[in-house]
Amino acid sequence: MSLRSTSTMLRPTSSILRQQLVVRGISTSTPKRASHDDSHHGHGEGADDAYTTESFFNPFWRNTLVLTTLAILAYPYIPSTSSNTTSPSLDPETFSKSTKDKSLPYVTRLLASITPESRIWTERNDKHLELSKDAAETKLLFQEAERPRVLRMRYPSSFEQASPHNIAVGSQTDLSDLKVQL
């Protein structure tokens, strides 16, 4: 190895050392104070707000006026609703016949063809009413039910503690058949 080859090998390491020194010098310098920043100035300057002129000729009001005028002019030409009753609750027979009436809208005719007859609805409602009554009666039964009253004694063995001797006649009841439940 020659002297020249060792010097070329040292060049990259010396440049790395120089860069580290520069970085250290910058990072170890004292921090700048934020009090002299440009963002703190301008408190006394006047406002540069520019107010827009507002009138009824901007696009919103123009479009509102055009649409209102078109609606007023088109209203007499809109087709009116049919005079037929199309409610299944008011007249079920007419509602079932409305599937063949071509003057009604398509959606109304479709709903009339899908909707079952009125007698089916009556049967369903009657069954629902019976089930609701049964549920209400069951609920009342469980709400009004009470557990039997049980008087718990603190010392159930007190019946057996008394002496059977020297008891006056009629001062106590006969407790021979008494069964204490714990």
Automatic annotation (TrEMBL):
Q: Where is the composition biased (Basic and acidic residues)?
A: 34-46
Report one GO cellular component. Answer: mitochondrion
The record's section on InterPro entries has:
Nuo17.8
Residue numbers spanned by region Disordered? 28-47
Protein name stated in the entry:
Uncharacterized protein
The source organism is Kwoniella europaea PYCC6329
Instruction: Cite the source lineage.
Output: Eukaryota, Fungi, Dikarya, Basidiomycota, Agaricomycotina
